[in-house]
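Troubleshooting: if your tokenizer reports a length mismatch, compare your output against this known-good record of 238 residues.
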Amino acid sequence: MQTAPEENRIHGISMRVEPAAGEAFAEQQQRARVTGLESTVAARVLDSAAKEKELQEKFDKFKQLEVEQVIQLEHLATVEQENRGRIDELKRSAADPGLEAMERDKRSVVRQLEEEERRLRSMVDDFTAKVRALSAEEQAKANSAAAIEQQQRSTVEKLTNKELRRASHEGGRSATTEQAAEADVQEETNGGPGLEDMIRDALGPEEDHPTQAEDVPLPLFSRGIPAAEGEMEASAEV
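Known-good structure output:
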């Protein structure tokens, strides 16, 4: 069993330990609160920074709009000044009949010049169309003339070839005729069978001498004529 002094000592120690544990718990709670407050403050700082950035962007936009509005106002002021100058000029023109007449004359001259320009453009268009039509017609004529010239050349060549063939045939026929005539003269000079047949035909009966169709050949002149005529007809057909 414990004695009274020991119990008192234990009681005193327990009394000292309990306040220390309470202080530690309180300190822990305080640290947790500080941490939460720091997180809250950091979040609010970030939020404030984002809002500040957004406000700065809006401020810059408003500043830009203000600059643009100032520029527009200056432009409107310039336009207003120009309009006032025109109004004053129109008033002076209305007050001065001479200037008004000059303005009317100027407008009339401008209209005449515009009409003349339209007329000249129309003339140029018509002239261009005519030139194109003439060019097409000239090209067609040139093509037709070339075709006619080619046809004429072909015809001339055909006629030339025909004349050359005819001259060649006539030259051959003349040579054949001359040879036949020389042969007849030679036969008559030598007293050939042609002359003897003629004498026998005149003196004796038909059975005493052979017929011309059987024994006596036709003269060369007679045989050459049909051949030459046939060749001439063939050349004429060509």
